[in-house]
Amino acid sequence: MNDRTLLVIEDARDQALLIRVAARRAAPGLDVRVAGDGREGIAYLAGTPPFQDRRSHPIPDLIVLDLLMPEVDGFAVLEWMRSQRPPVTVPVVVLTSSEGSDHEARSLQLGAKTFHRKPDDFAALASVVRSIVDQWVGSPLNPAEPPAG
Asked: For residues 78 and 108, is the Cβ–Cβ distance under 8 A?
């Protein structure tokens, strides 16, 4: 059994569902949680209601974060994580449809570990998610060590 948790912060329901399915296929037993926007993602990480019970809502081992969300975007989530004392140190992988190179630089500056652009094709998106999970989470039989760097 895999006791690792992935938190997907993504406002597009179809994309969140595909990421969830692809992640579970890459690491069977992976506990994949979805926050439907940045505000819900911050509430989950902060453990505020309705996420205060950490047995039911465990701290994730990895966050897959979209940048382009209404109201509270991915940059605000990254900024919130850095502003906490102590800072929230869960690794964040940005997976976004953003085309701006400035978005990549800003994400990395705010603490994201890597930045991936979402492919338009669902099969290609599933492949990207599988590679993220393989690299950062591993599988129940072969847990990944976080990459050096």
From this structure: no
Distance CA 34, CA 144 (A): 22
Collapsing DSSP states into helix, strand and coil, what is residue 75?
helix
Residue in this structure with the two tokens 């992976």, named with its chain if needed: 30
How many residues are present in the chain? 149
Q: What is the pLDDT of residues 108-143, one digit of tens each?
A: 999 999 999 998 888 898 899 999 998 888 654 344
pLDDT of residue 139: 52
Q: Domains of the chain, with CATH numbers?
A: 5-137 (3.40.50.2300)
Strands (E), 66-120: 92-96, 114-117
Distance between terminal CA atoms of the chain? Answer: 28
